[in-house]
Amino acid sequence: MIDIDPNGTGLPGIDQLRTIVGAVMTIGLVLSVLALIVAAIVWGFGANSSNPHLASRGKTGVLVSCGAAIICGAAVTLVNFFWGVGQAV
Length: 89
Description:
Elements: H1 14-48, H2 52-88
Helix pairs in contact: 1-2
Transmembrane segments: 20-48, 60-83
Pfam families: DUF6112
InterPro entries: DUF6112
């Protein structure tokens, strides 16, 4: 029987890589907020100018930006969940 677990100290630069990944997650969340603001403005302009195509694009943008924020926030939990599923196989 082979038992192998992830090794957090096996390679040089692992701590720096974790820092970089955390910074990329932060950038993703900040860009999600920016996209939400822009999409809400587009949605508002579309609704106020009786332009259903523009309003629809704004609604889609709001949903996409919220989905991106959910994925950025839940990325570590999702990976850990599927790691656990893979270990159970």
